[in-house]
Structures are given as structure tokens and as C-alpha cells.
């Protein structure tokens, strides 16, 4: 019998393997990072919403959710094996508050997502799983956009004890680890039970475990929470050695 080798990435996934779908904004640059959390027997089906000629502002975040872009993305990934679908954009899912987030998930469900997820909602689920209700918030955004995340958390009973931002409106994907690590260290407070790093376009995978050891508390990032919540819904755990969230099981009552 001829032995069939795994693919170039060493993945054991193949025809019939489970898959999660991800709908991301057009400017998403971190597909490779999302794959870091993926177990070898799970596939990732990813699509993007159409281009918008704007920088990252409050208005831009709102515009991302308008029209049929997100439902169309959901339909494109659920046409295959993905029943669990995540909308991987933090700002677009918190800019309208809890009601706006719920509207996105409702539109995703109507388009065919069996169990729709948004990144902001996934972060809330992660904080509940970790037992953290007081957090320090670090974002790459302009301050006025960053401040809206505090209000979103408050609607879920989570207090942001501090919020610090980098003040960026473009090329967030290019921020080096060193600058992000400095931001996380600067935002830490003794009364913060966890640190939240927002934005799915801000690289974070390699920072999480070292900074958790250094600071002695969980660091929950946007992409990490998104993948944890999506994988949990299909009974899988993320790959994240040394990351606090990776060691906590997702449960339906956290959603």
C-alpha cells in the first residue's frame, strides 16, 4: 500500500476533516497567525469582505458591518465544511456596542453559520472562562475608537481599569512585537486580573506565553480568543503552549 504523506505544512487534515470558517476584513494580514492555534486535524476556511478606501477610524469600523458583506462571507465558507464561523474583526464587532454585536451574529446565523462568533464576543467568553472581570485594555487604535471597547466590556459586566492605545489608523499588521510588548507592560495594573490586546490585525502569538510568565496574569488577544472560541465549538482546543487561555476549556454557558 502506498503511504500518503501529509501536506507541506505537516497537517494531518484532509477530505472530511472538521473546519472552521473565518470572515475577515479586506485588510487582514495575519492568516498565518490564525493557523498557529489550529490543531493538525482541523482546517481553516477563510474569506474577506470587500475593499473599503479608508483608514481605521470609528466610521470605518461601522462601515465594515454595513450591507451584505459579512453574510456573503459566511455563505462562501459554509458552502463547504464550515458550520462554525467567526467574524474576525474586533473593532467592527464592538463599535455598535452589545446590540451591534448581536446584530452581526444574527445576520451570520441567517446566512448559514450554525454557531456564529465575533471576535469581541469571543474575548468576553475568554474572560469569563478565565474568571477575569477587571481588565487592562491595550489597542493599536486611535483613542476615540479604543475607548468604545471599554463601553462594550461594561455592557458585559467587565470593567476596564485602564485603556491605552498606539494611535494608529493603518498598517497595524506591521507593528513589531517589541512595540506591542512595551504597550502591554505599560498598561498592566495590579488590580487588572487580565490584559486584553485588541485587533485581529495586530501580531501577538509569540508574545502571549512570555508576557504571561513575566506579568503573572493572562494576556488575552483578539486572534487567540477568536480561535479558542471557534475551536471550542467543535470540541477542539487551540495549540498554544504556555498560554493560559489554551489550557481552559470552552463551555457553552460562557457564550
Keyword list:
single chain, 255 residues, alpha/beta, Rossmann fold, 2 domains, four-stranded parallel β-sheet, 39% helix
Give the biggest sheet: 4 strands, parallel
Number of domains: 2
- What is Rg? 17 Å
CATH architecture of the largest domain: 3-Layer(aba) Sandwich
Based on secondary structure, the structural category is alpha/beta
Count of DSSP E strands?
8
How large a portion of the residues is in β-strands, by DSSP E? 5-15%
pLDDT under 50 segments (min length 5)?
1-11
Overall geometry: globular
Please state the average pLDDT score.
Answer: 93
Count of helical regions: 10
SSE blueprint:
Blueprint: E1 19-24, H1 31-36, E2 43-48, H2 58-63, H3 69-78, E3 84-87, H4 90-94, H5 97-110, E4 117-118, H6 119-130, E5 134-139, H7 143-155, E6 159-165, H8 177-187, E7 194-197, H9 205-215, E8 219-221, H10 222-232
Describe this structure in words.
This protein has 255 residues and is of the alpha/beta class. It has 2 domains: 19-119 and 224-249, 3-Layer(aba) Sandwich (Rossmann fold); 122-221, Rossmann fold (3-Layer(aba) Sandwich). It is built from 10 helices and 8 strands. Strands 2-1-3-4 form a 4-stranded parallel β-sheet, with helices on both faces. Strands 6-5-7-8 form a 4-stranded parallel β-sheet, sandwiched between helices. Strand 1, helix 1 and strand 2 form a beta-alpha-beta unit. The longest helix has 14 residues, at 97-110. The N and C termini lie far apart (46 Å). The relative contact order is 0.16.
Amino acid at each position: 500500500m502506498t503511504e500518503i504523506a501529509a501536506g507541506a505544512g505537516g497537517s494531518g487534515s484532509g477530505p472530511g476533516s472538521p473546519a472552521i470558517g473565518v470572515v475577515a476584513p479586506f485588510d487582514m494580514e495575519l492568516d498565518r497567525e490564525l493557523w498557529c492555534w489550529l490543531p493538525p486535524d482541523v482546517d481553516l476556511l477563510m474569506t474577506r469582505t470587500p475593499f473599503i478606501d479608508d483608514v481605521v477610524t470609528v466610521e470605518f469600523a461601522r462601515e465594515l458591518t454595513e450591507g451584505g458583506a459579512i453574510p456573503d462571507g459566511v455563505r462562501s465558507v459554509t458552502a463547504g465544511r464550515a458550520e462554525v464561523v467567526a467574524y474576525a474583526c474586533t473593532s467592527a464587532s464592538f463599535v455598535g456596542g452589545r446590540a451591534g454585536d448581536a446584530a452581526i451574529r444574527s445576520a451570520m446565523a441567517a446566512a448559514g453559520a450554525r454557531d456564529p462568533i465575533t471576535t469581541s464576543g469571543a474575548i468576553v467568553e475568554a474572560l469569563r472562562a478565565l474568571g477575569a472581570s477587571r481588565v487592562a485594555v491595550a489597542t493599536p487604535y486611535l483613542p476615540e475608537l479604543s475607548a468604545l471597547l471599554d463601553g462594550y466590556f461594561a455592557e458585559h459586566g467587565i470593567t476596564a481599569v485602564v485603556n491605552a492605545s498606539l494611535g494608529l489608523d493603518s498598517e497595524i499588521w506591521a507593528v513589531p512585537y517589541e512595540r506591542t510588548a512595551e504597550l502591554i507592560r505599560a498598561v498592566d495594573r495590579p488590580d487588572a486580573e487580565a490584559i486584553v490586546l485588541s485587533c485581529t490585525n495586530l501580531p501577538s502569538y509569540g508574545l502571549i506565553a512570555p508576557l504571561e510568565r513575566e506579568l503573572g496574569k493572562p494576556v488575552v488577544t483578539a486572534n487567540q480568543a477568536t480561535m479558542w472560541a471557534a475551536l471550542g465549538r467543535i470540541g477542539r482546543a487551540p495549540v498554544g503552549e504556555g498560554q493560559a487561555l489554551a489550557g481552559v476549556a470552552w463551555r457553552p454557558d460562557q457564550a
